[in-house]
Structures are given as structure tokens and as C-alpha cells.
Amino acid sequence: MKLSLPAGLVRQSLAGHSWLGVLTGALMYLICLSGTIAVFYQELERWEQPQIAESLGYDAATLERAYAQVPASDITHHMFISLPTEEIPRTSISTEKTGWFVNTDGSLGQEVKHEWTHLIINLHLYLHLPETFGLILVGVLGALLCGLIVSGILAHPRIFKDAFALRLGGSRLLEQADIHNRLSVWSLPFQLMIAITGAFFGLAQLMVLLLSYVYTDGDTEALMARVYGAEPKLEQAAQPLAIGKALAAMKTIAPGATPFYITVEEADVPEKRFMIVGAEHPGRLIYAEQYRFDSAGNYLDNVGFSDGETGQQAIFSVYRLHFGHFASFSVKVLYGVLGLAMTIVCVTGFNIWLARRKHRDHWNNLWAGFVWGTVPALALSGIAQVIFGTAATAVLWIGIAAATALAQWWNDERLAKQRFEFAATGSIVVLIVAYTVKFGAAAFSSLALTVNATLAAIAITFAYAATRRGRLISASRSTPADLSEGRT
């Protein structure tokens, strides 16, 4: 298939596509890489605390006893009860500050600690910037990604006709362009879906502000109430939370739905307190329908994400669609593969810009350090957080900064790539070994073994790539006329 487009439009699209890619390449790389990992956040949360007993069973009376044991000083405006699911077969109670796993006797167990997983998620959602600003920035980047996809199609009229043309091992420019274009074509629907849903997440706050002037005369709270349901006006005496009664009622109210969380709203104001039971509806993309109950467990209403207006249902379907949390685990794996493809597209796009300049300078060094140094920096942050319990956000960014500085000092991007590949191998191996030593027998549970085996496979891949790159560097130095930078 060849698009028939005016030559002028093609040139303008190519120029726009190139500059958009250059301006957003580094941040897009971090977002795509962290998003690929974040698809598996449920598995990573369990991996961070493999010693926690797991079970799909729970007792409502046990939940009530556990909730009653939360110290009054720890009660916050919102409280959260996570019910066990196939993905995370653990029960926990959390405040806005901390959380505990629930023991079978209703006592509060170990604290919930998922900081490294949250580091990955927050990198994807906010780029570790202040949340509001970071979310908007990521949303803008999602919108720009839509522009990159459209301009990329317009800039390459033969992009679909050449869908299987892959020229490896020759000119660096042709090699990178072919990898970039082929992966872009093969994952085009996925990339467009991720770009649109990502833009929605990030720009939702701005959309609320704009839409409020259209539908509610600028009243954002009224608009949010129309979408997410207005808070019920309650007059009730302070009393223990009737969690069991609410869960029992769910069997009649929504017999086909599966409750998987409870949010206690106005938890610090007993007279206004009410519960939201979030329930998954099989075969639906919506994250959950929300069923609301007062403190005594009396049913109030449902918000309407399962049977309300089309817009409501669409809004609550964005999450599962964006992260691939629907259907079977194989969908997550597919998202992981396609997310990795998007990450490679980001890297090769910038590589094309570097190759077209036909000279090298500090940009070549800094890009090599940034891209290839991020992986060992992530592994080091995992060691700091999971093994030693040290806040690891600074470790990650210091590691990335150090990698770019080292690459500039070495002034040889081929050598920098090789050294960072070895660094990735070593840091991942250290993480696996230290994890096994720290958690002992728990490190050999099926989930922990699966994650560690995946990490080991990644380490082996980097070791192979580094060894191969070393041979090519040696060959190019001994016979520079026969082997160019494009082969490394």
C-alpha cells in the first residue's frame, strides 16, 4: 500500500515528525520504558514482599475486626480495603499514609511496602514531578505522540508497502530507519490507542475545567458529580462500619459482579461516612462499578459505570485498556512486547536524527548514556529500595545523570553502550542474588521465581549484547575500512 500525497506535504510532515521526535524523545523513552514495566505492577508488588501469605478467601467479620484495629490517629479522610483477587491474592487495609496486610485472625500484619513498584508507576504517570504538573506534562506528551504517529504516516508514503523491508548491518541511518518504521507499522493500532488514552489521563483535569463551562456553568464539582456521582447526604449516628452487611448485600444487588475493593469515604467524620464497594463485571472493560452503602451497610445506589451514560462507561474503561489489565495474563505479555516496541521506536527515532547529521558531538554521547544507563540505574534503585529499604527515586536519577556524564567523559558511544550493557547485567544479577539472600525460602515461591527468572533472562540478553558489541568494536579498530559505526 502506498499513500499518494503531495511532495510538499510529505516534506513538511517529515520535518514536523523529526522535530517533534527530537524535542520529546528523552521523556517519551522514559514514559514508554516505565509503562512497559508498569503493565506488570501487580506481579511486582507481590515480588517486593514475597513472604506475605496469599489466599483468595476472606471473611467479612475478619475485615471488620481488622478495620476496628486501625489506630484512631491513623484514620484519614479516605480508607481503603483491598480484597484478594487472582492477580493479588492478599487482603490489606490502607490509609492515605500507610497500610497493613490483614492476618487470618483479623489482626493487622506487616506493613504494605511497594515503594519500588510505585517508583516505576510514578515515573510513568508523573515523571517524578509534582503530580498535577507531571500528569499534565505526560498528557501533553500523549497528545504529541498522536501527532508523531499521524505525521510519521504522512511523511512516509511507502510505509505500509515496505512493512517487511529490514536492512540490518549496513548503513546506520538505513538500519535505524527500517527498525523505526517497521516497528511503528506493526504496532500502529496499539501506539495510537496508548497515545489517546495517555493523553486522556494527563489532560483530564484540563478537560474537566473546559467541559464545566459547557455543561455546568463553570462548576467543576457539579461536573465531577455528574460523572463520578454526587456524595450522598447522610444523617447517621456514629457506629462501627458494617462491612459484612454491605458485602452480603452485593450478592443480591450484583450477583454476577466480584467485589475487589472497598473505599471508606469521609472516614474521619463518622456522621458522614459511607462505603464504596468496587466490583468487577466479567466481560466488561470498565475498571469497576461502584456500589455505595452507608455506615450501617444499607445500600444507597450505584454510580453508573456499568449501566449509566455511554460517556461514564467509556471513562471508566480507559484504565484497563491503557494498561492491558483485561482478559488473561497473555494480554499483559502482549502489552509488554508492544510497549517494548514503542520504547525502541523512541530510541531509533532519535538515532535517525543523530545519523542524519553526519557528524558526532556531545549529543551522541549524552543520548547513549541516557538510554543505556537508565537500565542499570533502575536496577540499582531496585537494590536500594527492595533490599535496603532506602528511598530510591534519588538513586535512579543520580544513576541516570552519572551515566550521561560518564558517556560524555568516555566520548565513545559504542564503548559507552557496551559498558552500560555490562553494568545492566551486573546490577540485575546483584539484585537477584541479594533478593534471594534477604527473603530466603520466600524467594522461591512461584511468583518470585517467575519475576527473578525474567530478570535473569534480561541480564543474559544484555551480557550477550555487550559481548557481541565488544567483538565488533575490536574488529572495527583492527579493520576500520571494513566495519563502520552502523554495525555496532
Structure description:
With 488 residues, the chain is of the alpha+beta class. The protein folds into three domains: 1-49 and 115-229, no CATH class; 56-113 and 235-302, no CATH class; 359-488, no CATH class. It contains 16 helices and eight strands. It has an eight-stranded antiparallel β-sheet, covered by helices on one side. A hairpin with a 4-residue loop joins β7 (289-294) and β8 (299-302). The protein is globular and about 85 Å long. Mean pLDDT is 87; it is low at 480-488.
Average of per-residue pLDDT values: 87
Unreliable residue stretches: 480-488
Percent range for helical residues?
55-70%
**SS elements, strand count:** 8
Identify the strand order in the major beta sheet: 4-3-2-1-5-6-7-8
Largest sheet: 8 strands, antiparallel
Give the overall shape. Answer: globular
The SSE string, one letter per element, is HHHEEEEHHHHHHEEEEHHHHHHH
Count of individual helical segments: 16
Q: State Rg.
A: 25 Å
How many domain units? 3
Strand content: 5-15%
